[in-house]
Amino acid sequence: MTLAARARTDLGLNQGVGLLTRVYRNPTFLLRLLRKAHFYKPAFPIREIEASGIGYLVIMPEGTVNPDPARPASAQKKSIANSVLSELGLISLWDSPRDVKLLCVQRFVRAVGYGLSTLILVAYLDALGNKKTEIGFFMTLTLVGDTCISFFLTLFADALGRKATLALGALLMAASGVLFALFGTYWILLTAAIVGVISPNGNEIGPFRAIEESIIAHLTVPDIRSDLYAWYNLCGLTGAASGLMISGWVLQLLTETLRWSLLNSYRIIFLMYGAIGLFMLCLTLILSHSIESEKRQQKGIQTPMRRGETTPLLSGGRPDSDQEVLSDSKPTRGLRALLPNISRDSVPIVIILCFLYGLNSFGSSVTPLSWTTYYFQWRFDVEKGQLGSIFFVSQILAAMSMIVASSISKRLGNVKTMVLTHLPAQFFRAVIGLPNNMHVALLLYMLHASMNYMSTAPRSALIATIVLPEERTAVMGTLNVVKTAASSLGPSITGTLVDRNLFWVSFLLSGSLKALYDIGMLVFFRQKERKKSESEQSRVRQQDTQAA
């Protein structure tokens, strides 16, 4: 009996007069089929899709046997446009569920807030009369507190509810902005930064990113997930760029045009930060219940595959859903829930990744964005508005480079793309503090910014390649904790160096450490990626052959 006949028997269906039935076991292959059907409807009409225990049953008129039909001229034009849009990931973003689009908007809005505060955080603490060493200590404790609170919130996010956890994070963000605007005492601000959500380095902090990336994986199929992650990160970079520019020009307006004091102008920025937290809360409240995990997991276990379950495949289906559907294991509870569920074979890989990620994060934390903006303001006396515009341009360059990196990695591989783009960026980073001329220093920083973030998407793809699917969440969570913990060490060192007029050493140290990370990734994972990729391609080809 053919697969199609078995699937029809399983679903209680007859062939039907003039109808052709085909079975696709591989969701990726099926998704390619559906995209062709969407763009070539007259030549490729699909009547119905059913899900069975064997695979996905596609019913179409008899005679539609070629999955790549002859295309008229108009269809060829559509094909070119479709290829461009698909290469950019815009089709995946357009077809994604509403909640995914809302999460991208949230990432943008939140990053605007981070950009607002990053430009002024060090300058604000300096204006309050704090020593550079105290400022570095402040930023270190802020990151330590963020590590603990984020780990706790993400650990129990599914039990508390993802929506509730995101709402709590938004409230903490709003409270931090208000407290920074109303108080100037060092210890009150430190408490607000540790308990609340204040980014000392311009990067993503709090529980948001881990939960949102988990939701995106929960709502989408693997074939489009990399595109969505790229645009999700792109929203973060463009939001941070916008926040930096807004902060700079608002400060210049308040201090030079309205003649406000510098401290009061800083406090207005923090009030804007608090307002963004409240706006984040509103965006969180309009998310649907489908972002929650527990109810859907229980539903998947009780009713694994029922007739007519076609919508989740296209808009709400999850990656590795077969594994989750067939799993009868109970969720881990108690103290064991604190430990990531990682197999013995993966432990050496995770240990190496933790070491290299920690080294990279520590290098980044020695010259975080907040200290870098302060450096240009302190060394070259750059005006606030001009400073905001400079870092706006640098973040936009970084955002654009991420799209380019995705295409490069398809041709060179993830590890080579990471090293060939990230390593030169670290050379420019290391020498930023050496020139006495502002324009030369800015040129070096722009060259660094244009390549520094090109490794982000290939790095995520590399993790997905070398780590088992059922372990990805645990490994990514572990790496995030390691990265945040390692990044908490750098600001104190920077504060000490700045106090001794050795700012240039921090750039040199940062670039050197991150270059060692690049070399380590090349040494440990170049061959491993190739072997894993060949194994994955062989498995997919085998599934496609069985499906056809």
From TrEMBL:
GO molecular function, a single term: transmembrane transporter activity
Gene3D superfamilies registered for this protein in UniProt: MFS general substrate transporter like domains
Chief location of this protein within or outside the cell: membrane
Subcellular location: Membrane
Pfam families registered for this protein in UniProt: MFS_1
Transmembrane segments: 108-125, 137-156, 168-198, 268-287, 346-367, 387-406, 427-447, 502-525
Top-level taxon: Eukaryota
SUPFAM superfamilies hit by this protein: MFS general substrate transporter
Domain (Major facilitator superfamily (MFS) profile): residue spans on this chain: 99-529
Disordered: region residues: 297-329
Entry annotated with the keyword Signal: no
Protein name: Major facilitator superfamily (MFS) profile domain-containing protein
Keyword Heme: no
Mode of membrane association: Multi-pass membrane protein
An annotated GO cellular component: fungal-type vacuole membrane
Keywords: Membrane, Transmembrane, Transmembrane helix
